[in-house]
Amino acid sequence: MTKGLITRRHTMALGAAALVTPAAGLLSPAAAAGLAPTPTMRGGANNYRPDAPIVERIGAGGFWMTGTVRRAGDGAPLEGQRIQIWAHTTEGHERDAHSHGATLTDADGVFRMNMPQIVPAFGQAHGHLAYDSGHFKTVFLRPVMASPNDTSLHVDFVLEPA
153: which residues sit within 8 A by CB, 6+ positions away? Predict the structure, then answer.
């Protein structure tokens, strides 16, 4: 037997679900107000190389690193922000210069980099990302993949002014 009534609980659940855009995982502008900055993760700066070049992709590709960059407080997307990416992959170690590359965010604050498949290092498949352009406080992230068989990893930055 189904109920035709929409209860307060249903309305609240639908409202909360509407705050997240399924495709991008982004908060709506109303929900982004008061957005706290992303803290730097322990181990995120390991093997960091300042000024890694902006590249179309790293190596042969096959794995997608994606994410968003937003401003703390109002959650506005930040265009033209440099994100550096590096990892231990099927083509090299995270300390190798050819395993590093940078990309810029688009008008919606979205970045994407095609790179070789990330493989476990020290028992964990993980990537490294950095915002280090100077307009905002530097943030280093070291997200761990749910499975070493994943072919993508999504990471969001919320930046505060430097």
Answer: 63, 64, 65, 66, 118, 127, 143, 145
Choice between 28 and 91, residue whose per-residue pLDDT is larger: 91
Nearest to 116 by CA among 106, 125, 105: 125
Cα–Cα distances in angstroms (integers) from residue 158 to residues 76, 116, 145, in the given order: 9, 26, 20
Give CA–CA dist 114/146, Å, rounded: 19
Is 45:130 a contact under the CB 8 Å cutoff?
Answer: yes
> Is 40 buried (19+), middle (13-18) or exposed (0-12) by CB count in 10 A?
middle
**pLDDT digit string, tens, across residues 95-137:** 999 999 999 999 999 999 999 999 999 899 999 999 998 899 9
Task: For the chain, report the end-to-end CA distance as a whole number of angstroms.
Answer: 58
Check the CA dihedral 79-81-86-87 and report its sign.
Answer: negative
**112 exposure class (CB count in 10 Å sphere: 0-12, 13-18, 19+):** middle
- For the entire predicted model, the pTM comes to 0.79
Angle at alpha carbon of residue 47, lines to 112 and 108, rounded to 5°: 20
pLDDT of residue 33: 62
